[in-house]
Design goal:
It is a single chain. By secondary structure, the chain is mainly α. Among the domains are: 13-87, 5' to 3' exonuclease, C-terminal subdomain (DNA polymerase, domain 1); 99-129, no CATH class. It has helices spanning 13-26, 39-49, 52-58, 72-80, 99-109, 114-129, and strands at residues 170-172, 181-183. The protein has a two-stranded antiparallel ribbon with strand order 1-2. A hairpin with an 8-residue loop joins strand 1 and strand 2 (181-183).
């Protein structure tokens, strides 16, 4: 049983509809894209024309052919009224992978290379054998201890120590990307 509650209409309904149309034009899992229509053209088109239908009408069909499989109406419905199964109705269990099913899907249906799939299956099986989970803090190393009691480090005399410039050299003025400098006194 799925919950098909539509996105509610409200004061921002028109903006939501434009945003959904923009998302579809930018590319989504529900339909293909219009060749040549990238983010800038899609944004400008929806902004100027206000809807997918008017934007498509405005396109030069020779320069931007709309594919016959571009089902933006169906994609729009899925955005507005997604088919969602309540979590209480889903039972997720992790078991051994269906190796033959993986091969059928990846090699036969999706035309992946046999070698690539076999290597992936081997990595999957090896990962399933390793059942230890690391603690989060094991990803970090303590490099050194900073003591707050030592206070700030003193700098040497001007022209000495780390970061000092040899006499007569230019020092950056702090402007990003600037090549000008001030002579260090």
């Amino acid at each position: 049983m799925s919950s098909n509650t539509p996105v509610p209409d409200g004061p921002h309904h028109d903006e939501s509809a434009k945003f959904i149309d923009l998302c579809i034009l930018l590319g989504c899992d529900y339909t293909c894209k219009i060749p040549g229509v990238g983010p800038v053209r899609a944004f400008d088109g929806i902004k100027q024309y206000g809807s997918m239908e008017k934007f498509i009408e405005s396109l030069n069909s020779e320069k931007y052919p709309v594919p016959t499989e571009f089902n933006y109406q169906g994609a729009r419905e899925l955005f507005k009224c997604p088919k969602v199964v309540p979590a209480a109705e889903v039972d997720v269990t992790f078991g051994a992978p269906d190796i033959e099913g993986l091969k059928q899907f990846l090699i036969v249906e999706k035309m992946f290379g046999d070698e690539r799939v076999e290597k992936g299956i081997q990595r999957l099986q090896k990962a399933r054998e390793t059942k230890t989970q690391c603690r989060l803090d094991s990803f970090f190393k303590v490099v050194g201890v900073v003591s707050s009691t030592t206070g700030p480090q003193k700098r040497g005399k001007e022209g000495e120590g780390k970061g000092a410039l040899p006499s007569g050299k230019l020092q950056k003025t702090g402007q990003a990307g600037g090549k000008k400098g001030v002579k260090k006194q």
